[in-house]
Write a structure and sequence with these properties.
single chain; 446 residues; alpha/beta; elongated
Length: 446
């Protein structure tokens, strides 16, 4: 079972007793926001869970132990208690762990804090982070670290809380306010973590062509209005189809790519999703970034969809997918053209598989085998058709390029390592567009 973990950094100021508004509930007046947050989030935690309070030597002396601040005779005794005293009276006292850290004045200190914080995290922890009194760069460090730990330890950040005491005004004025009027909101700033997820999704798309991650980070609304339900449904569809597009390219599913159902569904729902109230500014900009590419796909069966997928695979260095899709696409176009213009081709084969096998063999047969009429396999079983189509002008024009493309595909798919990466890339950028231009009289983009 995942462990729940509360993390807070203790500051050095002489804090003023205040009510905090957390999730719509008003806490009792407390000097330390940690008490209010622990009462809200941790009151039913068990021995498996943890509460970590980080302090420096100065904050230990001022606010962890009793009577660390300067007081006068009018100060109520309870206002002289340190956080240690307060937490010892809680039911969760046994899971409270104080940890001493350096001040953080140097880069070396920062890395020590990073290591200390990272080492207390365990696999699949659920984090509740209090950023209210974290000093200097600690909030920034913690949020970056949590994203790091999400990758390496699969943690989840449930909340990042900030007690906005400053909304009440300067401390000297708050001190003179009636305690019942001291009500400071606690703001959930966990959207910082979500922003990092959006950044990671953008990076995956730009560097690796993984478009499905973008759908995964889109925000759903918790509201139940008709418009919000419609937006949520649109986002679900876009999520599904963006992941489908990634999957189709990854496994070279040329039939689903050509069909274009994923593009139709995305394009139909795109405006609803991007204009939804729950889509934040960062998500909207990311959707705008991918919009031109998504709308280049055709929302119906089209060879252009296959060309787009090949372009994406090659652009993002998915060379196995690029070569595999390209060769199968060339076979498909050739089959389509021969079926359309040659009645004997339509009637010679019982299945699409046989037509494709014959076409591939016809395009790949070497000139020496043609010269000696060394026909094997499906070519020898269809000898009259083979001899007829060997003179087809387009076959003769693309033969050498197709042979090169096939050799490179085989080298990749069968782990031969016959060519270096630069050669594989360079030859694809020439052979594939040349072949498609000959077959279709239109040159695809790469």
């Amino acid at each position: 079972m995942s462990r729940k973990v509360f993390i807070s950094f203790l500051g050095t100021n002489n804090y003023i007793r205040t009510h905090y508004i957390i999730n719509g509930k008003i806490s009792k007046p407390v000097r330390f926001i940690q008490e209010a947050l622990i009462d809200e989030f941790c009151n039913d935690w068990d021995e498996n869970d943890r509460i970590f309070i980080f302090y420096t030597q100065e904050s230990l002396n001022r606010n962890w132990i009793d009577k660390g601040q300067k007081y006068d005779e009018k100060t109520p005794e309870e206002d002289t208690y340190g956080l240690e005293h307060i937490l010892k009276e809680k039911a969760v006292c046994d899971i409270v762990h104080p940890i001493l850290i350096p001040e953080g004045f140097t880069e070396n200190d920062i890395w020590k804090i990073f290591e200390c914080l990272y080492n207390i995290l365990e696999e699949k922890d659920i984090i509740y982070f209090d950023a209210t009194h974290a000093f200097r760069s600690i909030p920034l460090l913690a949020t970056v670290l949590f994203n790091y730990a999400k990758c390496l330890k699969n943690i989840t950040v449930a909340s990042i809380s900030y007690g906005a005491f400053e909304t009440l005004g300067p401390a000297f004025k708050v001190q003179n306010m009636d305690i019942k009027d001291r009500k400071a909101p606690v703001i959930d700033i966990s959207s910082i973590i979500h922003l990092q997820d959006i950044i990671n999704a953008a990076n995956d798309y730009i560097k690796f062509g993984k478009i499905g991650r973008i759908g995964d980070v889109l925000s759903f609304s918790g509201k139940e209005t008709k418009a919000q339900r419609r937006t949520n449904e649109a986002i679900k569809i876009i999520q599904r189809e963006l992941n489908n597009l990634d999957s189709y390219i990854s496994i070279c599913d040329i039939q689903h790519i050509k069909q274009g159902t994923f593009a139709k569904n995305i394009q139909e729902q795109f405006d609803t999703a991007i204009n939804g109230e729950n889509i934040n500014a960062a998500e909207k900009e990311l959707l705008k970034k991918i919009e031109p590419e998504l709308f280049r796909f055709k929302p119906s069966a089209s060879n252009l969809n296959i060309e787009m997928a090949i372009e994406r695979a090659f652009k993002h260095n998915m060379l196995v997918q690029a070569y595999t899709l390209a060769q199968e696409y060339i076979i498909s176009i050739t089959c389509e053209q021969l079926t359309e213009h040659l009645a004997s081709f339509r009637t010679s084969f019982e299945s699409e598989k046989d037509r494709r096998t014959f076409t591939s063999s016809l395009l790949a047969i070497s000139n020496s085998d043609v010269a000696t009429e060394n026909f094997t396999g499906i070519l020898s079983k269809n000898i009259r058709l083979t001899k007829q189509l060997l003179n087809w002008p387009k076959r003769q024009q693309i033969h050498q390029q197709y042979k090169q493309l096939t050799n490179n595909r085989n080298s990749l798919n069968h782990a031969k390592g016959a060519y270096d990466e630069r050669t594989i890339i360079h030859q694809f950028s020439k052979t594939y567009p040349d072949i498609i231009q000959i077959l279709t009289e239109q040159r695809p983009t790469l």
